[in-house]
Amino acid sequence: MRNQKYVWIILLLVFACNNKSDSLTNEEKIAGKEEKTWEATRETNAEGDKDKLTRTEKKQTITFWRNGNVKMGDGDEMMSGQWTLQGTNLALQFTGSDVSENFTLLKLDKDEMKLKAADGSELIMKPD
Q1: Inter-residue contact 80 to 73 (CB < 8 Å)
Q2: pTM for this entry
Q3: Count of the separate structural domains present in the chain
Q4: Are the C-beta atoms of 113 and 38 separated by less than 8 Å?
Q5: CA pseudo-torsion sign 16, 34, 54, 103
Q6: Tens-of-pLDDT digits for all 128 residues of the chain?
Q7: Is residue 53 part of a domain?
Q8: What distance in Å separates the CA atoms of residue 61 and residue 39, rounded to the nearest whole number?
Q9: Which pLDDT does position 98 carry in this prediction?
Q10: CB neighbours (10 Å) of residue 93?
Q11: What long-range pairs does 36-40 form, CB within 8 A, spacing at least 24?
Q12: Which secondary-structure segment (H or E) carries 6?
């Protein structure tokens, strides 16, 4: 009987530790503790057909900071600005330009983000 108590205590501790990663906020999933860089892995067009990523697109990354800053580019050309998340709307507003990107967040966990653009295309990203 005494051994069963120890088994139950160990099981409860294991389950409590496993649930900790599920309790991340969406902002933490996107930007990590301080910052997180994402890269595109797959893209589909508005019809749902697989769209091959170009060489340039494969080099592009998006880095999100917890303070709301964002930087996007391929290393040679970078745009920076601010990001916000309201519900499922992820908005990127770039400094010094009229360029902004608005996405619908279709899926988000710490290892994958699926975004839908206004034109209906979808982009799957993984952490760098």
Answers
A1: no
A2: 0.79
A3: 1
A4: yes
A5: positive
A6: 454 555 455 544 455 555 444 588 999 999 999 999 999 999 999 898 998 888 888 889 999 999 999 999 987 889 999 999 999 999 999 998 887 899 999 999 999 999 999 999 999 999 98
A7: yes
A8: 5
A9: 83
A10: 16
A11: 36/63, 36/64, 36/127, 37/61, 37/62, 37/63, 37/64, 37/127, 37/128, 38/62, 38/63, 38/64, 38/113, 38/125, 38/126, 38/127, 38/128, 39/125, 39/126, 39/127, 39/128, 40/123, 40/124, 40/125
A12: helix 2-20
- Tokens 């990663």 found at: 21
* Within-domain flag for 1: no
Q: What six digits make up the tokens of 24?
A: 């991340």
Residue 39 CA to residue 72 CA, distance in Å, equals 10
Beta carbons within 10 angstroms of residue 124's beta carbon: 16
Give the residue numbers spanning the domain of 99.
Answer: 25-127
Residue 10 inside a domain? The answer is no
CATH number at 122 reads 2.40.128.280
- Report the sign of the C-alpha dihedral through residues 53, 86, 110, 76, in that order: positive
Determine, yes or no, domain membership for 86: yes
